[in-house]
Amino acid sequence: MNIKPLESLPELLAAIESFGSAHYGEAVTQEQHMLQCATLAEREGAPDSLIVAALLHDIGHSLRVNAVARPETDFHHEVAGARMLTKLFAETITTPIQLHVAAKRYLCAIDRSYFEGLSDASVHSLELQGGPMTEEQCQRFRNAEYFEEAIALRRYDDLGKDIGADVPPLQYFVPLMEKMLKSSN
User: Fold this and answer.
1) At residue 19, what are phi and psi to the nearest 5 degrees?
2) C-alpha angle with apex 103: 102 to 109, nearest 5 degrees?
3) In angstroms, rounded to a whole number, what is the distance separating the alpha carbons of residues 90 and 129?
4) Residues 19 and 61 sit within 8 Å (Cβ to Cβ)
5) What pLDDT, on a 0 to 100 scale, did the predictor assign at position 23?
6) Where does residue 137 rank: exposed (0-12), middle (13-18), buried (19+ CB within 10 A)?
7) HD domain: from which residue to which, for each copy (predicted)?
8) Cβ-Cβ contacts under 8 Å for 112 (sequence gap 6 or more)
9) Among positive and negative, which fits the CA dihedral 43, 48, 53, 59?
10) pLDDT tens digits, residue range 12-35?
11) Closest residue by Cα to residue 100 from 137, 146, 32
12) Which of 37, 70, 73, 98 has its CA 20 to 30 A from that of 128?
């Protein structure tokens, strides 16, 4: 998959707008989901980088909006999203995004109750993503840089599916994204 990295914040905001109203097998839209995840991270006192990662973790789905979506295949949105953001943000943001699917596979392998709490859509995507990790995969994942951040991001991802959640609009997070841009640091 040839992914063109985004070049600017306006380009990123346009990508969000292109897929934000789409549903992805859950009761909330993509934009509602991303805003909920970022709000959960912020309310928990997460570092700014993790708040931005929570906001943008599903940006790779924006590529699928204009592609032929096949529900029986894994689109690897986590890899696509991390690649899209490499010119804009540091690895403190892009690596947890790239690892958030692996974090789900890891948590399913180590915690049966975690698996039992997944939504139907998340169980379906887990199957497409390779299912729970093996013990060897779990060990490698535990040693990955940004392991803890990926696990935290995964937790926000799982919780950010509440139809009635009160969240700020996307514009609320724009100053934080501007602050975290590579060009700002």
Assistant:
1) -125, 0
2) 90
3) 25
4) yes
5) 66
6) middle
7) 33-92
8) none
9) positive
10) 999 898 877 776 667 788 899 999
11) 146
12) 37
Give every CB contact of residue 102 below 8 A, 6+ residues apart in sequence. 78, 133, 141, 144, 150
Instruction: Find out whether 55 and 85 touch, Cβ atoms under 8 Å.
Output: no
Q: What is the pLDDT of residue 67?
A: 45
> What distance lies between CA 149 and its chain's CA centroid?
12
Fold classification of 9-163 is Hypothetical protein af1432 (1.10.3210)
Which amino acid type is present at position 29?
T
For residues 105 and 131, the answer to whether their CB atoms sit within 8 Å is yes
Q: Which two tokens stand for residue 35?
A: 């805003």
Distance from chain centroid for Cα 162: 16
Query: Quick check: 31 and 24 in contact, CB under 8 A?
Result: no
Q: Return the structure tokens found at 19.
A: 């897929």
What is the amino acid identity at position 157? D
* Number of residues that make up the chain: 185
Per-residue pLDDT, 120: 87
Which residue shows structure tokens 């990790």?
Answer: 133
Structure tokens at 123: 């169980």
Q: What is the arithmetic mean of pLDDT over 148-153?
A: 98
